[in-house]
Amino acid sequence: MHVVMLSDWETRGGAAVAASRLATGLVATGLRVTRLVVFPDRRRHPWRTMVIGAPLISLRRLVRRAVPLAARVVLDRLARPAAEAALERTLARLRPDLVHLHNLHGGLAAGWSPRLLAVAARHAPVAWTLHDMWPLTGRCVYSYDCERFVTGCNAACPTATTYPVLPPHLVGPAWLERQALLAATTRLAAVAPSRWIGAAAGVGLWAARRVEVIPHGLPLAHWRPWPRAAARRALGLPATGPVALVAMPHLADPRKGATLLAALGAALPAGLTLLAMGRGRLELDVPGLRVVPLGFVHAPARQALVYSAADLLIHAAPQDNLPLSVQEAIACGTPVAALPVGGLPELVRPGRTGWLAATPDAAGLAAAVAAALATIAAGAELRASCRAVAEAEYGLERMVERHLALYESL
Predict the structure, then answer these.
(1) 159/233 same-domain check
(2) pTM, rounded to two decimals
(3) Number of folded domains in the chain?
(4) Do 213 and 236 reside in the same domain of the chain?
């Protein structure tokens, strides 16, 4: 079987990392995998990589940043025919048995759009992983409290000025475009990493479509617990005392919890060491709190070391699907404190893998973090139960097997 995957980035960002892990696992079973991307990483991989999109993408991105929103949308839409024609030619040449869509919205400047679904469907059955809510809505990646996506997004979109930005008057037509594309596609299934996003798909645009819940998998041989004392020693951390961790691609990203963390800061206990893994700076100025900036950590082995050094991962995202950082921490034996939103209750299980806030706000998260650190200081040990959950549910082989069964059924 030859599987062609479309994803905006090859390996950058959680969706691309999840797609890369799946691709690696599929190749290990003997499948051919070709990745079609806008932004390749130029490294050697077990799959073949090809770049698809309108030409001069770097120049397009520069121009796009410099022009008003209305002009940006025009530029993106002018690029669509070239991207669609390039995909049409490439799929005709590759002749895949199945096309698997992942995140597309990072490729808007290259002419990527939901219309790539129609191009793909002319050549093979299609699976589309719902890494976020973009395939379900008129434009947003998370709807938060808005439920317009169920019956029809419109100009009243409350987040139209956030990524991916779209003028309000175009939000309704974008939702209708997705509706028409899905209605016209027969051999199609959605892959939902969490039951939460699967349920969201089932009440909106995807209500009449097949939706399979398949959680992300990861190579557990790499994501494993290190002895905590050795991990702290390797990172130059104190051997004793509480250590917490925040991990996100960009430490200033509000969607990943930067705003909530800033509000949480004053409630963190004195004497806490807080590791900050990600690009940028964590803006916290709290007396008695030691913040250790680690930057963006690329190597999985070092990431596992960081997770293992911490007593607790604090995941402050106000909405999330099935975040890899939470899975990775649990696989490394580190419990998690998080908000009761999105797919997080499926990962963070009180008494086994962590602590869920009672309310989805800074006060609720502060109480959960305080309870977690106090319980850990009193001698509670969740490392074994965290790892047991990971081994039972997060194995890469398990995810690959379930995808293979889906592919065969399409």
Answers:
(1) no
(2) 0.95
(3) 2
(4) no
